[in-house]
Amino acid sequence: EVQLVESGGGLVQPGGSLRLSCAASGFIFSSYVMSWVRQAPGKGLEWVSSINSGGGIASYADSVKGRFTISRDNAKNMLYLQMDSVKPEDTAVYYCSKQNSRGQGTQVTVSS
């Protein structure tokens, strides 16, 4: 059974930083593209970033490009999202995603 457990969310001031983590289990983590998606209040799911199985190729939504960095540690079955220079519009529940599976999410609130 695929299990994805996100952590690291919280309240952060505009311009600040936050690092999200996702612990994966129940599948061969190193074989899959992994992604982060988010859902802002009252809005649909938005793709944020993806990283290939080996960790060498990443892609980002225009809205976060240059501010967020996705990474993974295949030895630890962990996925990360480093969020820098955050903005109020980054406020959302952030989900770790493998194909059609998602975790329970972690809330990120950007506010002064």
Q: Could you please describe the fold and organization of this structure?
A:
The protein is an all-beta fold and 112 residues long. 0% of the residues lie in helices and 52% in strands. It has no helices and eleven strands. It has strands spanning 3-7, 10-12, 18-25, 34-39, 45-51, 58-60, 68-73, 78-83, 92-98, 101-102, 106-110. It is globular and about 40 Å long.
Please tally the helical runs, counting DSSP H or I stretches of 4 or more residues.
Answer: 0
Q: Spans with pLDDT under 50 lasting ≥5 residues?
A: none
Q: Biggest β-sheet: count, sense, barrel?
A: 7 strands, mixed
- Average predicted local confidence, pLDDT: 97
Class from helix and strand fractions: mainly beta
Beta content? over 45%
User: Can you count the beta strands?
Assistant: 11
Order of helices and strands: EEEEEEEEEEE
How much is the radius of gyration in Å? 13 Å
Head-to-tail CA distance between termini? 40 Å
Query: What overall form do the CA principal axes indicate?
Result: globular
Percent helix among the residues?
Answer: under 10%
What's the SSE blueprint?
Blueprint: E1 3-7, E2 10-12, E3 18-25, E4 34-39, E5 45-51, E6 58-60, E7 68-73, E8 78-83, E9 92-98, E10 101-102, E11 106-110
Parallel strand pairs: 2-11
Antiparallel strand pairs: 1-3, 3-8, 4-5, 4-9, 5-6, 7-8, 9-10, 9-11
